[in-house]
Write the structure tokens for this entry.
Amino acid sequence: MSPSRRFFRSRFARAGATKTLPVTQPGSSRLSRWAAWTTDRGPVWRFGLKFSGLMTVFYLVALTPFCDRLLFTYLEANAWLANCILHGFGQATWLDETTIRSARFAITIRRGCDAVEPSWLFCAALLSFPASARWKILGMLAGTLFLQALNVVRITSLYYLGMEYPSLFKVAHLEIWPVVFILAAICLWIGWVRGIWGPTHDATA
């Protein structure tokens, strides 16, 4: 068994998520062997089902008009904060709803140019993992704040790239930053599981 598999299995076991494996005889049927295999992986199946369900709920809610209006307000807040940071760095920028403008460049923050999806990806992974509510809440708050701050860094960096190196803007916007956010969400979750934020000794199913 690989070290990573042993590690996560031990975490599920500490959370009380494992069950006693059924004993199978040499002549047992395929159904019995299948039951033993699924029981062995029961905690992983439960995690996968919970995670998939939460992500499905997110995408369904994201399609509603209310969520659309709420997201626009959120994008305006991101634009305002990024604009304040750019002012702090001496940029003569101004806001036009979700667009940051200057005499040299303009960047519009649209749906997808936010940290909502990776933040929910991270939160769904935490909610699906067997741990105490206290550490889930603390982990979600810390991780979400980090991802939101990272999103403001993304906006300001894209503004500078578009102004100084326009040839790199599209690559950074569509290829580099999306990967950075997904990796950040995954690394945050792994760090939380390993006990950086949520000690597993007090985890509950």
About this structure: Confidence is low (pLDDT under 50) at residues 16-21, 197-205.
